[in-house]
């Protein structure tokens, strides 16, 4: 994992609270030509990535809200470290575009396509846990999001799906060929609620990893 570039002015909520609101972001250099910006507004701040090509042209990407007033969720609200991780993924994409390594697809590239390619990549590497992760994706991710084009996968869709998994009934494993059983979530059972949230977070991790691999 890449080392996090620190900035004492923006890498904590308390530090950002002391900054003056302004349109020009407070920039942190992540690597050569790659910067993470924090734009302070009257109602909180937002994260912005900036990429400078070898030719000197600049590209920008809005990453999402900073966790100034709301806790980071990794979807639409990001801590400094989370925003930098998002920015690095985008920097990698821009670098690949610059090198001519990204090509247009003949057909829309969907979430199912991204998961398929991600699992194939992990299998080729000999990674552990691929079978279990694929089964988890087949149970919860693909039925809900599989046909969604990556270009049309919005934060709202991700949040709605994640919330749905966290509050849905548990799928009980059965022998192959038999109908899958469900166990209704008892919301008065705090342990069961925590377990469903943990499951939703694990599946979100799988989905985000496949999206990162796709880009």
Task: Describe, in plain words, how this protein is organized in 3D.
- The protein is an alpha+beta fold and 215 residues long.
- The protein has 2 domains: 13-99, Double Stranded RNA Binding Domain (2-Layer Sandwich); 111-214, DNA polymerase, domain 1 (Orthogonal Bundle), CATH 1.10.150.
- The protein contains 6 helices and 7 strands; from the N terminus they run αβββββααααββα.
- It has helices at 13-17, 80-98, 111-125, 130-145, 155-166, 190-214, and strands spanning 26-31, 34-41, 44-52, 58-66, 77-78, 170-172, 181-183.
- A hairpin with a 5-residue loop joins strand 3 and strand 4.
- Helix 3 (111-125) packs antiparallel against helix 4 (130-145) and helix 3 (111-125) crosses helix 6 (190-214).
- The protein is globular.
- The mean pLDDT is 85.
Which structural class matches the secondary elements?
Answer: alpha+beta
Helix tally?
6
CATH topology description of the largest domain? DNA polymerase, domain 1
- Helix and strand run: HEEEEEHHHHEEH
Number of domains: 2
Low-confidence stretches at least 5 residues in length (pLDDT < 50)? Answer: none
Radius of gyration: 20 Å
